[in-house]
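Notes from hallway chat w/ T.B., transcribed later so I don't forget. T.B. wanted the structure written out for a chain they're using in a teaching module, and asked if we could keep both sequence and C-alpha cells in one place. Agreed to drop them here.
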Amino acid sequence: MNSQKTAFINYKGIRYPKGEMLNRSREFYQFLDKRRSVREFCDKKIPKEVINNIVMAASTAPSGAHKQPWTFCVVSDPALKQKIREAAEKEEYENYNGRMSEEWLEDLEPFGTDWQKPFLEIAPYLIIVFKKPYDLVNGQKHKNYYVNESVGIATGFLLTAIHNAGLVSLTHTPSPMNFLHDILDRPENERAFLVIPVGYPAMNATVPDLQRKTKEEVVVYYKEEKAEHGS
C-alpha cells in the first residue's frame, strides 16, 4: 500500500468583484454558445505550438485520485490520416447499413451525415483521445478511478480550448474503435475514447440551424425556503 503523502501548498485563486464576475460569466457563456460541431474543414496549416497549448489546457482537467488517465495522440501525417479514414469508414459503413437502429438513423437524418468521413483527411490535425483504465509502471498494473468521467471532463476542456483558439472541431465516434489502437500502436492499457478533427472551417461551411435547450429545460434550482413569520 502506498502511504506516501502529498505535500500541500496555499491555494492562490482568482477573485473578481461581483459586477466583473457577472460580466465575465455572461461573456463566457455567450462565447461558448457560438461553438458548433463542424464537419467541413479546410487544410490550412495550424502552428504546432497552438495544438500543444490546446492539449495541455485539456490536461489541466480534474481526475479521479489525480491519476490523469488520458493520452492525446496528435496526428498530422497524411498517410496515417488516410489509414484512419479508411478504417473508420469501414466501420461506419457497417453502422449505417445494419448496425444502427431505425430510430438512431432517423435521429441522425436531420444532420445529413453518412458513412463517408472526408474530414478525417482534410483537417490538418486529428486528436485521438485515449483513456487508460490502468497505468503500467515497471510492468505492474495500477488501477485508475472514474476513468470515463475524468476523460470526459478533459475532452470538454479540449473542445473549449479549441474554440478559444478560433478553431473548429467535431467529436467523432466510429464504433468500434479498436482499429485506432492498432494503427497508432498504443500500449495495452489504452482504449480509444474519441476522435477529434481540429482545424479551420472550410469556406462556406454550413452547420444545422439548431437551438440549444433553454435555461428552464436544463437547470433546476433548489432555493432555501424562507422561514415563516414568527417561527
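Follow-up for T.B.: Strands lie at 70-75, 125-131, 134-137, 140-143, 168-169, 191-199. Might be a good example for the class.
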